[in-house]
Amino acid sequence: MSDATEGAKDTNDPVLTRPPRGGGAPPTGGSLTSMALSGVRWTYLGTAIQFTLQFAYQAFINRLLDPAAFGIMAIGLLAQRFGSYFASMGFEQALIQKPDLTEEDIRTAFTLNVAFGFGLFGIVWVAAPVISGYFEAPESVSILRAIGASLILTAAGMTSSSLLKRELRFKELVGRNTAAYVVGFPVVGLGLAALGAGVWSLVAAVITGVATAALLGYLSVRHSLRPTLNLRSARSLLHFGGRATVLQLMGWAGSNLDTVAVGRYSTTAMLGQYNRAYFLTSYPTQKLANDLMQVLFPSFSRIQDDPIRLRRVYLGATSVAAFVLLPVCAGLAVASPEVVRVILGPQWDTAIVLLPIMALAVAFDLISRVAAVVAQAKAELNKKIVVHSLTLGSLVVLLLLARGHGVWAFAAALAAANAVRNFLYASLMRSMVGAGVVATWRAYLPGLAAAMALAVAVWATRSVLLAGAVPVLVVLVADMFVGAAVLWAVFRFGPVGAVRDEVHTRLASTQLLRRSGPVGRVARLLFGAPRRTG
Description:
This protein is mainly α. The protein has one domain. Helices cover 80% and strands 0% of the residues. Helix 2 packs parallel to helix 10 (268-302) and helix 10 (268-302) runs antiparallel to helix 11 (307-334).
């Protein structure tokens, strides 16, 4: 259900060792840390903007459409996301990871992407009646066929997206993604929903957003559009990209088999409730994680041959990621009634029950992402395939056991399978970077401590306010304020020195904490004074 992520020891080496014509000039100068931090700043700025827009959009769209509309759309998106992995064939990751990238590589990747996009559109068109029959939702046939057209647009935009990431041009990525979202969802989607278009407003939003992103991405990079098929380039890209596609498909299965099960054994309205509960937990946390991971992948790729440094950076990144993501999941779980009623509205009571279980599932998933990115950056894809295979097998068994026990049991099965994957990735890091399960779980401890503190504070706050019959919107705002204050207090004054040290290390090259004026004062208030050196 989730929502785009060369190795050199010298961190000042350019990303493109042989920059192709039309592929954009590689970044020059600057340390790996400063370049990665610049990427983090821009991606999180974009995330903050999209958070605001997304939740404003959701507050309206979930009141204009009923749960069944979201259930039908969930079926369409299953096919769209599955097809998008075949459309890329892993070329996105291959274009980022390949040490020496040529113009022939870029043209070959673009040609194959577009060809696969058209082919998959045809497959979805033909298979739509079969898919709708499986879910016993005949009204989804036309939705599936329309959504299938977005695969062509998705494929056409993949090459430019990969080149922007490879060159660490995250400022342009943020601008592209934000503009595409605004045009697709608040403008087209919400406008059509207000006019009574129903589920078709969701379809139009997706297609418009994908088309806008593809166009803006190309205008930023302007790679060659002339088709070609260089067999040597194709083999080189497929050597990495083919295995990456297998992993992506396994990831799709691991993230969507629960949706398939709910859609098969429940109504489309219940599938809509399940889909919205997952969205509320996954969107804020997945966006935070994905933005961090798309910055870490190029960074980890550059130090893949330096195991000592890679181990240190892996544990530090894991600690910071857990400290940010686990408390967010805990807060969502505790405040689930307010979150659902304010953002979704009064017709989504089942989502209240599901949201805490979904938060646990998402937490297990997210805190294993850094390990997954390390394996990807080191091109250890066969080991990742083993991890995903074992996880997928456990998920299938758990979903079969969940049948007949209600929709909550499918959510619990997903949480348990994600826990298995987390353990397997932590075990894999011992052989890969010399950090085993104990070292990895030790890196989780600051995040777990912050999550418990935040959960207790939010629970106490909402209990007091609800006893006084305070409006639910006020309760949610208070929950968010208290949660943010507790997380800040734990970071500044709690026993999380390793996290503070890691953040200060990452901020050192920016000189942010040493700046004068309002920006510097706010930074020192949030993160503390810079450490003395020498």
